[in-house]
Structures are given as structure tokens and as C-alpha cells.
Amino acid sequence: MSGFSATLRREVLLASRSPADMVNPLFFFVVVVSLFPLAVPPTPGLLEAMAPGVVWVAALLAVMLSLDGLFRSDEEAGVLDQLLVAPVELYFTVLAKVLAHWLLTGLPLVLVAPLLGYMLQLPAEVLGSLLLGLLLGTPTLMFIGAIGAALTVGLRRGSMLLALLVLPLYIPVLVFGAGSLGRALEGLPVSPVMAVLGAMLAMAMSLGPFAVALGLRISSGD
Amino acid sequence: MSEHPLLTVEALACERDDRLLFRDLAFTARGGDIWQVAGPNGAGKTTLLRILAGLFGFYEGTLSWHQDLVLRQAMLYLGHRPGLREELSPLENLTWLSALHGQRDDNALLAALAAVGLAGFEDLPVAHLSAGQKRRVALARLWLPGKPIWILDEPFTAIDAEGIALVEQRLRHHAEQGGLVIYTSHHRLAADTRQILLGRGAARVQP
Question: Which of the four pLDDT bands, split at 50, 70 and 90, describes residue B189?
């Protein structure tokens, strides 16, 4: 486990040295969501009806865009080889890397989402569902996307392939995530949908790092 | 240690991009040995080291490390890229790398950096260092204890004559202590250094 905490600390340190990587996804998310109300006709209720889809699609794309560089800079510096030959379980170092990435890029999205929801004229009662849904959904998206990032790490222009690989796997998260907010807007109970999002997170978090570790080994040629 | 071979390689062959890099490579490495892998560019030196380090799995033949040995515990692998993140300082890079290997001793790291002539550069971002200094940061790990097997890809690249002498001396010292060194370079340590010569799809072992 010493590899876990050391890697977590290193990732936070790295992010603090290049804050742009951390701010870009947040900026993308905020800009996309805040441009939307300007582009749709001011029909009453339209914005509210579209809000779940807009927020969730923007969050999904922001997460996906942030993932391309997850392993690439380590690969280019030759650090990935060091990770693969180290005597610690790759599972834990990968878990630490993805968790740190979520804390630094995913969590800010989640925290700013209620503000954007307010801007999209969502009633205050559903903002809690928006927050909880994204809190469960964005780490799931991170762990799934990390598998694609690991498989495409050796490719110089891998971002397009990464999108093709992970988008189909993102769809259930998107459907249930936006669905949870939709249900909240209709006044229906959201806990069943949240439970499904939670189950998807549990699966992605426990099995994802295995797949990422395997992907990294395949990319390195083993 | 030198009674039992640490590494036995038999009939090793590797092909990449439909091109045969080498075949029929066989050698036995013991503790106290220094092996130089030499050959023209593209002959497969790096690939051979990656195979030995367990990083590359597309080969034929057998490769067996001593049964009591947990390779990842015992091996220090330095690739041809230094393996350092430019944003971090030498000390931060080494702290993380040695934590992965279960070593956490800041004084040992500072001593290792001082040994390669980087005292005073510990806290500067690696991006601010010269190519030779970056290589020296990576090589500082040779001064950390606990790794009997060293697999080094081009350790002498970019460092000055003084640095080469320093590393040479360190490699000899390691072998005298019973460690095994396998490195690629055009630079032969001594006339009696064992050599693996790659090139034109073949492999020769001397002596």
C-alpha cells in the first residue's frame, strides 16, 4: 500500500505544477453548459427539460477530454516502464492515479454543477440529485475512460480512438445519470437510479484498475 | 551466489516488424558478472533488455531467473529515457520511485544525489537540468542499496567523461559485491567484460 499513498501524493504534486491540465476540463464544462441557455429559444420550461441532458453530456465530454493525457506524459518520460517493473501491485498504483485524477479534475466539476443547474433554471429541490448523480457518475466515467487511455497510450494521436473505445461504455452511465435528474424533475424517487449508478461505480472502481493494468502491460509489449 | 546462475537464457529469438532481431542467443549470467550488450543501431539491444526486465513478451526461447529470486524485488531497470517527470524535482522523482520499491530514506536519496554530483540541485525542477544532469539523476539510483540485479539501457549517454568514470567505477564495485550488471552501450568497461554482440539477425556471446 506504500505505493498507493506515494503515488497519490505524487499526482497531486504533479497537478499543482501544471494547473492548466486541471483547470481545462472544468473550463470546458462551465463554458459548454453556460453557452447553452444563450442558444436555445426562450420558451418557458424548455431549458429545464433539457438541463439533465446538457449537464451530463458536458460532464461526460469534459471527463473524456481530460483522460487522453492520463498516462501519456508518464509514457513519454519513460516513467511507465518504471511503474511496470516496480515490485508493487500495479492495481494499487493505477487506483491511486485514477483517484487522484478524479479528485483534481472530476470533483471540481461535481462541485460547480449545482451552480450551473441553478443557471439552467433547475428548481432548488433537484440540485441535490444533480450533485449526487455526478458524484457517483464522474468517477465511473474516469475509471472506464482510464482503460481506454491505457490501451491507447502508445499511440501518438490516440484521442480519437480513445473516444471510440470508451463512448459505448459511457452510454449506460449517461442514461442513468441524466435519468436520475429527469426523475427528480418529475418528482419521482431517485434512490433506485442512484443505486444503479452506485453499483456501476463499485464495479468500475474495483475491476477497472485490473483492466487498466492489463492495458498498460499490453501497450508496453508484454 | 556465483555457484548458481542468476539468469539462464537459451535459444532466445526475437522478431519485430517482420524483421529478425536476433536468434539462438544463449548465455548464463552469474552474480559478479558484468555483461555488455553491443551492436549497431536497431540491432535489438533495447528490446533484449526489455525482454530480460519482463517488459516485452513477444519472444521465443526460454529465459529463467534463479528460482529464489523475485525479479521485481531484486532488479533495478533504467531505460534509455531517464524515467523522470520534468515538473518534479530530482528529489521528488526519486522519492516516489523508491517508495514504489519500498525504500523510504530521504538521507539515502540525498547521499545518492550528492554521489552523482548533484548536491544543491535536489529541489530544482528536472526541466531546468541539462541532459547529462537528468541522466545523472536517473543514475543516482545506482547508489541506493538493495538491488542485486542492474539492467541499464545506455547508462553512459549524455554524461561527461568524469561521469562515465564515476559510473564505470560504480558498476565494477557492484560486481565485486556479487551483483549482476547487464548494460547496453558502445562503451566496453574492460577488455574482459563479457559481451553479447547483436546484429544482422544474429547474436554472438564473448567469451
Answer: confident
What pLDDT is attached to residue A69?
82
**Interval B168-177: pLDDT, tens:** 999 999 999 9
Answer yes or no: is pLDDT of A201 > 90: yes
Edge-to-edge, what's the strand order for the sheet holding B75-78? Answer: B75-78, B149-153, B180-184, B34-38, B194-199, B202-206
pLDDT score of A97: 95
In sequence order, the β-bridge partners of residue B9 are B27, B63
Alpha-carbon gap, residue B144 to B111, rounded angstroms? 9
Interface residues from chain B to A (CB-CB < 8 Å) = 50, 53-58, 70, 72-73, 75, 77, 79-88, 92, 95-97, 99-102, 104, 125
pLDDT value, residue B1: 45
- Asked if B55 lies within 8 A of A220 by C-beta distance, the reply is yes
Search chain A and give the residue with CA nearest B96. A6
In this complex, do A82 and B100 lie within 8 Å of one another by their Cβ atoms? yes
A85·B99 Cβ contact <8 A: no
**CA pair distance A169, A145, nearest whole angstrom:** 9
Q: Is B70 in Cβ contact with A87 (below 8 Å)? A: yes
CATH code matching the domain that covers B7-206, chosen among 3.40.50.300, 3.40.50.12710, 3.40.1050.10, 3.40.640.10: 3.40.50.300
